[in-house]
Amino acid sequence: MRLKAIILCMVAIGLGVIFGGKTTARADLTSALNKAPQGVAVDNYFEMGKINNNSAQLARTGYGDDHAVQLTNTTNQLGTIWTSDDAEMSLNSDQTASMWMYFGDRNNSSGDGMAFVMQNDDKGIEASTKDVNGQPVGGETLGVWGTDQDKTMATADKVAQTGIQNSWALEFDTFRNSTSGAAALGTGSSFDSDSMFNGVYSHIASGFPGDAGTYTMHAVPVSQATTYYYASMNHTQPIKGPSARWLVDGAWYHVTLKWNAADQTMTYIFDDKDAKTGLAKANPTTRVVSVPRSKIDPKNTGKIRWGFTGSTGSNWEPNAVVFEQVPGIVNATADATLKDETTQQPVANGATIGAGHSMRLTYNLAYKGGSQNWKDIQAELNLPSNVSFTDGTITYGDAKLGTTKLSADQLKSGAQTLPIAEMSADNPTATITLNGEAQTGSSELSLSKFVGANALTDTTVSGFTVKAPTKTSALKLELTGDSATEDSTNGSTSISPDDSVAVTGQLHYDDQSPVVNKTTTLHPVLNGESLQTVPLSTTAAAGAVTYDVPTAKLISGQDNVLQLYAEDGDGRISSKVTYTITVKAGSLDLSVPTGATFRETALTGRDQLIRPSSDLSVSVSDTRGKGNQWTLYAKATPFVSLTRQVLPASLIYKTGDNEANLNNGFAEIMSRTTTSDRDVTTISDGWSANEGLLLDVAGNAIGGTNGSPARYGGTITWSFSNVPDTK
Fold first, then answer.
1. Cβ(83)–Cβ(336) below 8 Å
2. Backbone angles phi, psi at 705, to 5 degrees
3. What CA–CA distance (Å, rounded) separates 384 from 379?
């Protein structure tokens, strides 16, 4: 009885060890998924591969259910996941895929890895490596490459036929299958027997699984009559790790793939983002490979299915993927520009600028295509702490969406979230513009994300230092002379288009120290746009300001708000003054004579064109401002003599091969968009014997008698269509 008790005890302990090991593995993967970087939910874009015992499943991350795909998590598994039919990627346009990948932390015990695969295999989501019995094979094949487990296969094309057909794969191989010689026969563990992988465990490489050129066959004679074979794999553009722990060190690695449709190339960029901060890494590993469409899309469908495969053998690891952008669904980009409006220079990372400088931060979002609109977008902004933002706007590519105004309360430093309207082909852009003032202090390079239901993209904003002026005495600017009204900080005037405006003012320090014109610069801002800075005149009195407003920048028919401030050589920013310039609305005028003639012409008995005399001069004057539009039309009555005889003729307007009959009703004469605030166009300047306004007289027209010309008269009616200024 004691012996049986001991045996039972030993069995109990053995079961406890095995069970405990699986629990730990699941716990480790759960912990890794909880700390996974942010991605998008794996919605109906993917389907689990239809293979026996598929180990792939959707998994939860710290961002919610179904935000990751788990391919493997124990020994002897094969997992596959593919895009659905509706989510296939277009090969006719550029595409971007980005994702985070996790390979566990089992170090030298890891295997075998994952592969990103694009394929047009006839088996669709049932595609995987198959053995001679048609059963799925994992291990070194990763479920995508061909298998050499049948040692009688003598040729590479036989091996290739067992892999996924019409495909390209990028492998992330975490186990060195380096068996060679007789020991490799029938083992399916020889793909990495190439000398380039000596001492290397993990590696990345690409190739065509269904192409014989991917494999090299090795013959092993086992007797005089019998020769068996094994295969090694020809790795294209390999990336080798720096240590045995590479990839399998418990870290999340970011991967970006870019398909170039015109060049038929794939660029893969490895480890281009930091998993903890999300910030881009400098000099990531990049490879570019040729992927001819004839190899992956022989039927020229223009589409391709893509997905991931992953496998384990006696060595294993937890393999997981988090997607940021799913190609074919949404292709979106974001970038950010921080500009010092005071100096009119972009702010580089690590730069130093002066306190009080006007700042403008601009985020540009772009929707570049996809089978779906970019939905439910939230701008998760990480705003620099050393800028006090005062206002902002969100402007969309679709003008019907209008402009959303942002208040200072919505733009406090740190994390801020703003909703963005759905983006699509009809609304392909969104621009977030934030205005503020630099405050003393430092900020770090920061990441802002744009997270939608079906795509995520991000961009960075420079970190910089803001230094206080070296002197503390305040600098004040006041309007002077005719520029000032009730107080010295505001002024206004009303002008006609093209009138010049000069604004005058005076700078002084509160400690009465003299202003040094040579080192002081004036900063004009007109209607919210920072204009070219102007140094103070060195021949003027100390602190004297004269600013000539560029009339080309003034908008007719509205109030133009000019703000002026100055900065001295010590970095002190003056107070601001505001000057309002009202430009009177111009007019659209047509100049035509009340009476004019066509040239006296001898009839020939054939059809002929008669030019107008020089007294028929037509011109348009538009003083409504640059960018306005107008179109001039004209129609004519028949030409009739005093005896009520109708001239067999038509008044036409001819330009090149185009000809319009004014007797049939209004015809377009000219259309124009003005290029200045006072735009004058003399339409009749271009008229000639075959161009412009002409009288087309038929050959049966009756002329005068007894030396007296026949006289005919008619009426031309002119009409304008003008498009209101939309600035």
1. no
2. -130, 160
3. 15
**Nearest-angstrom CA–CA distance, 420 and 431:** 10
- The answer to whether the beta carbons of residues 465 and 564 sit under 8 Å apart is no
Paired tokens of 27: 């716990």
Structure tokens that stand for 457 in this block? 């993209």
Structure tokens at 635: 């129609």
CB 341 within 8 A of CB 359: yes
CA–CA separation, 478 and 476 (whole Å) = 7
- Bridge partners of 105, per DSSP, are none
SS3 203: strand
Amino acid (1-letter code) at residue 582:
T
* Of 373, 418, 376, the residue nearest 398 (C-alpha): 373
Could you give the 3-state DSSP secondary structure of residue 139?
helix
| C-beta atoms surrounding 581 within 10 Å | 23
- Are 607 and 701 in contact by the 8 Å Cβ rule? The answer is no
Alpha-carbon Rg for the chain in angstroms: 38
Close Cβ partners of 17 (under 8 Å, ≥ 6 residues apart)? none
- 543 vs 506: CA distance, rounded Å: 6
Q: Are strands 692-697 and 345-346 parallel, antiparallel or unpaired?
A: unpaired
List, in order, residues 6 or more apart from 700 with CB less than 8 Å away: 648
Instruction: Write the DSSP assignment of 171-185 as a string of letters.
Output: EEE-S-----GGGGT
Which of 219, 231, 234 lies closest to 149 in space, CA to CA? Answer: 231
Q: Are 578 and 562 in contact (CB under 8 A)?
A: yes
Instruction: Give Cβ neighbours of residue 12 (< 8 Å, ≥ 6 apart).
Output: none
pLDDT for the residue numbered 163: 98
User: Residue type at 727?
Assistant: K
As a whole number of angstroms, the distance between CA 450 and CA 378 comes to: 6
Amino acid at 689: A
Which of 253, 93, 90 minimizes the C-alpha distance to 170?
A: 253
The residue to which tokens 């060595």 are assigned: 315
Which has the higher per-residue pLDDT, 16 or 568?
Answer: 568
Q: What is the chain's length?
A: 727
pLDDT over threshold 60, residue 24: no
698 closest CA partner among 598, 604, 607:
607
pLDDT of residue 210: 98
Helix, strand, or coil (residue 201): coil
- Kindly report the average pLDDT of the chain as a whole number: 90
Which pLDDT does position 726 carry in this prediction? Answer: 42
Residue 125 CA to residue 144 CA, distance in Å, equals: 12
Element (H, E) at 259: strand 252-260
* Token pair listed for 241: 């790790």
Confidence of residue 327 (pLDDT cuts 50, 70, 90): confident
How far is residue 377's CA from residue 40's CA, in Å, rounded to a whole number?
Answer: 11
- If pLDDT is split at 50, 70 and 90, which confidence band does 198 have? low
CA distances from 183 to 138, 178, 186, 188, 230 (A): 19, 10, 8, 10, 10
Backbone angles phi, psi at 140, to 5 degrees: -65, -20
Mean pLDDT of 56-64: 95
CA 5 distance to own-chain centroid: 71
Tokens read off for 33: 């998924």
Provide the residue type at 124 as one letter.
G
Q: How confident is the model at residue 199 (pLDDT cuts 50, 70, 90)?
A: low
